[in-house]
Design a protein that fits this description.
The structure is a homohexamer.
Chain A lengths: L5 H15 L5 H6 L6 E8 L3 E2 L3 H13 L5 E4 L6 E2 L4 E8 H35 L9 E3 L9 H10 L13 E3 L1 H7 L2 H11 L6 E5 L2 H9 L4 E5 L3 H8 L10 E5 L17 E3 L2 H4 L6 E6 L2
Parallel strand pairs in A: 6-11, 7-8, 8-9, 9-10, 10-11
Antiparallel strand pairs in A: 1-5, 1-12, 2-4, 3-5
Chain lengths: 295, 295, 295, 295, 295, 295
């Protein structure tokens, strides 16, 4: 009912079953002692990380009923919780035919999203640990649009469950002028004015800049948000000194190759947003497995 | 026309555009100097790896025509080629409106598949380098079913372009009896016989074993392929000595946590297949970017 | 290629053909002298209004080719142009079988979108005519989310071709706190703060208020945009005097039952946006017809 | 279970949610005090009209369960009932997250269909009031095929709930030879004979005529139904005198710009059907709103 | 462009490729000498019958281009033509990868539809041969609604290409009151009156009767068409004597187990329609095969 | 939950309703005495055969609930059971509106699949009756890929319920080198080696041969399965004498025009598989009807 809605997971469980050609699962069809054989199975963490699969388990319950069986799930860990190797995340009970069919798609999904949550949590904690005690608000860590097509909802869910926030989730949900747009428009001022003219009045105008000269132009053009792209920590500090403060002050985002090893150096008051593409395109999957108990 | 068909890529380009809500790309709509502004863009590698996106560029050309524009692509590197930072993979020419809309979905896709190809190539080369000069055929490196739902075709494509091979691509395309099936069937013999009874006559019966006792039972039951799961290299050597040779000899697969650092130790004659799940669930994306040239 | 993309129209042409069960068009099948009979047809305006169907004619050409025939269209009037009764908007040439099948769906669509454009144009002109010569910028006239499901893209297109602008096109593309959200949150401050916390940093926080007390709270809470709902012109003037000016000044939107007869009275400097729901839910269709020339 | 089936409404509720990008409803996500916050809401008429949304409320209940929540609806007014401003049509109870998401799509739909029912009822009543006391049966008021693509089912539902009837709902469900078909066939006789030859034997052959000469030809060719297009009331009376009576007598339909102000003049015995395109393309939406009660 | 439109075939070619999991056609992938190997193939009849697959070959050409290759087809026989064993129906040229992929789906389709055309032709000819030389018009032979779901369009196409006609193609396209409807309505008169009330005015009211008493009631109720269900030829003759003649005379249909061996006995003047369910549910496929010539 | 899953049937019930345009079932809408009229109906066999529709009845129950009604089914006969004329297979209870809508699609489906099961059962019994008492295992009777697109799952289900087995269900699920592949590859050896190279290691390599010379080459190339295509019984015996026995012995399949009248002559020990295309492309439908009891 909130963002971790099982509705976001359901089509992907079905897609996984489709990939698997599950109707002709000869192995399972040959091994069941009876068509309705019931089993219990344990979903167990095999690595340290952040679990982010509640919605997937809700979808599993729901879809299993649509398939004419019923898999009942009870959970010990919930989305956002840390897990360590051996932790029993959840127990499934139901028909072996379905549990064996859903196993792989469900695991493939929860490993992916939990992997993203795990990476995000690590980054947020590193930032928080390095944050100076000045009273300045901690920046947001956000994802980018670098998500596998079709998986943006789930990828952003992983980021949020790890403690990060969404950047714009679509081109319709924010304005971000990048190098290519500037060139197309013929300059920073033209780009900012053009965007402001067509964009709905509820969207801020954000622009990516690659040096201080561009930053100055962006500020002069009235940008609401400036993104410092591939600025070193020193360059960020210098840039911040050029940004006005007070009412109507623009927000400052830093971006570009920031990773677990380097985020601490970007813990600079005045930075409002840190966006990290690798969260959604290169996080390692969290190892989780399903162990079926049979009687 | 061959396996790297653009048809496998097309739905995902469309899904990426959908994620992006591309019709309301306020930024681009605001920045174009004229609706039909034409541009040229360069697709450039930013890291070392194996390019695996030819089909995606074919899909880009095709889909752009369906969108009423036409993006023309000329390539310098082709699927299976190595690339290094700065290599100009391809040039795109066409309407700015479309090139800016397709940029992100295309990059998201080719980075993913090329990342898988890159990881696979590394693994294959490490295995080949370690392979003893005994005349025994080099084992296949294969993927598993640990692929993000919907992406199995593209993930396996990446593996094959990297030099690996497909394992069964669906439950309908192979029999693989695992621990859970054995328990469901009530034992190894029952599982093998049950599977052989219902499976089409053109499928071999493969069974996963976790120790030598199970291996012996599998061989006695007439398995066509045995998978040694999580066996150490020493355990693999010992197991191989129990497998019969000659006509009708079963194939031997090893699996379980094998990675770039350890694959050399599995370079053991008699092993036919090495399957590696991380290829498709945890490869790093290959960094590639698009630079628009404007006049 | 720009927003009036034929891609937005295509699915609705197909839906119209589907509604019609066009494959079993017994009337046409019985009346054609030969299966490939070619005809010419004239698309003619029957009323005064603003034409807004270029994209639909592009879609017609495109889809006709997908149907194995080819309807060629030449236009005399273009999206955004005014038309009057008798104006020959466009000529179609191609197979009678297809022209007779596409006639009704295309007319149904262009009449709808042109009707919206026509209403919007009238409203914009009435506002402009009444606008005082003070140098204050003319407010935007915008649509709302009161659009028939599935038709938002085309409805907003009609508004824009008529001279209006989009409000947020989706819940993801803007924040608008209404009466119900305030109650759910437990007050204006809680609502504004809650929304600011979860919304992407590129979205402004807009809030609807129904009286001056609420307006004051909204301003105190730091709203970026205030919407004065169902305020009389006098109430708008009074409210505007409470809104701060200068850097970071919030935008002011007025809304609620504004129509052609009353918009002039809202021509009040300081108003930034006037949103009008009836544009998209109750505009009259523009009368357009297709006359087939045979012979 | 009858024609007002919620199945006709369901895809459009989903389409409306899709238009809204409801998963990223930042406003609601930010305002809920707790994810499962429950509320009650009142659906209230704001204008005089005919309510025609029972099926939509059934669909709302059904779809809400598919979304993992449950909205319970109790109704005071039912499809076909008149409503006046302030009437409490129905009460909804359920999770705020869902009620706020479904509000706009449901309102957009019921306003549209109720608007059509309202216009149709007015037309039917005006006709009935003007009908002479001769014992001749009252003509049917019917819609046409001038419906927004995809919405034919719901538009015709609105007409029927208002007291009208369906004309053919698809090209497959009736034969109607119009001016263009006559020209394609090379004359009225050829058209009628051609249509009779290919059409299923259960369909009557209807033909549109624009003057008495055409009417005579249509009758001579054995048309089962004649449609008098754009005939004035006097022309209708004259035409009726030429139509044979007795067994096998053709039906007479009048059509063309008939509206609330003019329908009384077409209350002419002998007319069987009056078809009115504006019912489905230009009815005003019925104003209905949802008021959430929070506690 | 006419009813044998390739659009009706296209989705089924795609469904056949889907059934086949054509992307992983290991056999073909392993056997091609080069990815783009071109071949020529001959489509040859292996039995006597009526060819009915022109639309499928058009769809083949069209879809092959959508797949990035191009299969060019030249035909010697056309839909409606008779073929005998050995006749070269058509030649295909194009990429081996695609020709081998499309072979099976295309053959499966054309064999099915041609089989229906072949059975229909035989029935029509038997009827015509037995028809007495009285000047009475030959009855239509029609199909029924006994078609495999999804295949109604193609099944009816086969019937029409064989010389038969469509019965109503959908419930929306005709009224046919059967035994069950009579019981639901509480009698023949109630059923006829109920149907006439709700059905569009362009539909005749047809009713199925199983004996002369029912026939009399149907006629008295004003049925436009009567269907004599499972009447023997003698019973048909007797029934015909009770049906009025002249203007407004009802049509007479016979139905129920009529087959090639018995249709001659139903060659009775006064019968207007003979409907035969087995045409679409039990016709034998026409044997056709594809022979690839390679160089 | 096992292979006779109602999920395989559901989309086809929906497709049948779609073919029928069930929402506008004027006949039923006109005949119901009240919208919710409840009825009972009996599903009765009208011919001898094998019932194979359990899954369809489950789908009926399930889908009826999705349609807002509920059809309850109780069965006397189950999939795989023989039925004879007059047998009461099942009773349905529920709303007349739905039962009359679902009647035709359900009958069309169960007649088709039961027809396939019936033909298969006859073939298996004829084979078993003719099988010599030598202790050699009875061959499998299998279907082929000659199935109507979209219906492979249900067609193979019919075969299996009749006592047969699946051949490969897709190109991805087996390797079968046919004449055309041999030509493409340039010979039998090249084809076998090419296929073995790219096919997953769990697939056997099967090859179709048309004479003994080809058989010898196939055996020499190491084929795992040989298919003797269009061999007479004598040719089969001769061929069998050339096939090696013992460990690693290839399987032998015979195919080509085998039918009920001739299968006994192929009851030859050493044959492992008999595949029969006509089972799925030319079986007669099993006659089954629905009789509604009203009262």
């Amino acid at each position: 009912m909130e963002q971790d809605s099982w509705l976001s997971w359901k089509p992907w469980i079905l897609a996984g079953l489709e990939d698997d050609g599950w109707r002709w699962d000869w192995t399972t069809l040959g091994c069941l002692r009876e068509p309705d054989q019931q089993v219990r199975a344990r979903l167990v963490a095999k690595a340290d990380g952040v679990w982010a699969g509640d919605g997937c388990l809700r979808a599993l319950e729901h879809v299993s009923r649509e398939f004419g069986g019923e898999i009942r799930v009870s959970q010990n860990f919930f989305s956002g919780n840390r897990v360590k190797p051996g932790d029993l995340i959840a127990t499934w009970e139901g028909p072996a035919r379905l549990i064996l069919a859903f196993e792989r798609p469900v695991l493939n999904l929860v490993q992916y999203v939990s992997g993203i949550a795990t990476s995000t949590r690590a980054l947020c904690e590193a930032l928080e640990a390095a944050w100076p005690n000045t009273g300045a608000p901690l920046p947001r860590v956000t994802s980018t649009r670098k998500t596998l097509p079709g998986y943006r909802d789930l990828a952003v869910l992983g980021v949020r469950l790890g403690g990060g926030e969404a950047h714009r989730v679509s081109l319709a949900g924010g304005v971000l002028i990048k190098e290519n747009h500037i060139a197309a428009a013929g300059g920073i001022r033209a780009a900012v004015e053009g965007a402001r003219k067509v964009a709905p009045h509820g969207l801020k105008i954000e622009i990516e800049v690659t040096n201080e000269a561009e930053l100055d132009q962006a500020l002069a053009a009235g940008a609401d948000v400036v993104m410092l792209d591939n600025f070193s920590p020193e360059q960020v500090r210098s840039a911040l000194s050029r940004v006005p403060s007070g009412a109507g002050r623009p927000l400052v985002e830093v971006s570009g190759g920031i990773r677990l090893e380097t985020i601490a150096s970007y813990a600079i008051p005045g930075v409002d947003v840190i966006s990290v593409g690798s969260l959604t395109h290169s996080s390692r999957a969290l190892d989780v497995s399903l162990l079926v108990d049979l009687g």
